[in-house]
Structures are given as C-alpha cells and as structure tokens.
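Retro notes (design track)

What went well: tokenization of the new backbones is finally stable.
What didn't: we kept losing track of which sequence belonged to which structure.
Fix going forward: every design gets posted as structure first, then sequence, in one message. First example under the new rule, 174 residues:
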C-alpha cells in the first residue's frame, strides 16, 4: 500500500516558486520461505502415504515435506521519500535554487522453524528449532543549493552555475 503527492506553487511574477513531493509505501510479505519444487513433496510417488493423519497431525511415515508449512516468515518494509525545491529569481538571468531530499527506509523480518517441523524421531528436535530476526533502518538527507546566471553574449549564451551538495546517511542493522 502506498500514497504519493506533489504540490507546487509560484507567485504571480514567477520570481519565487516552491515544489514539495513525497511518497510513503509499506509492504508486508508473508510468503512461504521455501520452494516446494526443491522439496521431497514434488518427487514422492503418487501412492505415497498421506501427508496428514486423520486427526490432523503430520504423518511422519515418510519424510514429510508438509512440515515445511510450519516454518513461518513475515517481513514488513516501509519507505518514506520527500523532496522540496525552492526557486528564487531576483533579477533577469539569475536563479537561486535549493533542493532538499529525505528518505527513510526501514524493515523487520522474522523467520521461525519450530520443533514441530521436525520428525518426532529426532530426539533433539527442540535443539534444531530456530528463529531469526532482522531489523534495519536507513535514513538519508540531501541539501543541494545552487546559483545559475544566464545572459546573452555576442552570438551565443553564457551560462554560469555553481553549487554544492551536502549529504548524510545513517544505517542501522540489528
């Protein structure tokens, strides 16, 4: 899901203008963290035992590929992006412009493999259980002011531009 916007305005003489744009997107991923094509389920004989017993428990008679369905994964990602351009033209040919940008990207993922996803014949199935999480956040901002002067010169045009860019980035992983 997401939303984006853009708003701009300039005053009557066109000497001053401003533009603000941004977006926010959020995604949730809970797709199965495995590929059944590479599991035993695809290659089992057509007359293989049922994957589940009558009471709903996994049938461990063969190596049961349905146990993979007990593994869970969930990922949530958010991205906020905003930028702003301010332009001022105090005299003919001179443009003062500043562009500002901001981005915040963050996410969290969780992967679990419970002991119930292992055959009961494995005596240390609780030791094989696992869980992992990943959290991250990346924030960046940019300030980009510049000055441009344009004038006619002989049979051509002279254009001078100067400016600088200031950036900052903060990355956090856990």
């Amino acid at each position: 899901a997401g939303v984006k916007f853009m708003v701009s305005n300039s005053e009557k003489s066109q000497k001053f203008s401003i533009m603000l744009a941004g977006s926010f997107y959020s995604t949730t991923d809970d797709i199965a963290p495995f590929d059944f094509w590479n599991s035993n389920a695809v290659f089992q004989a057509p007359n293989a035992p049922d994957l589940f017993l009558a009471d709903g428990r996994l049938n461990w008679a063969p190596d049961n590929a349905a146990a993979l369905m007990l593994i869970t994964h969930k990922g949530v990602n958010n991205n906020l992006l905003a930028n702003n351009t301010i332009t001022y033209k105090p005299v003919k040919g001179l443009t003062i412009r500043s562009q500002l940008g901001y981005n915040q990207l963050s996410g969290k993922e969780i992967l679990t493999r419970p002991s119930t996803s292992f055959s009961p014949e494995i005596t240390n199935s609780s030791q094989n259980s696992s869980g992992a999480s990943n959290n991250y956040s990346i924030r960046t901002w940019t300030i980009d002011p510049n000055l441009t002067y344009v004038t006619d010169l002989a049979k051509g045009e002279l254009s001078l531009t100067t400016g600088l860019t200031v950036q900052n980035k903060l990355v956090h992983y856990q």
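Added context from the reviewer: The mean pLDDT is 89.
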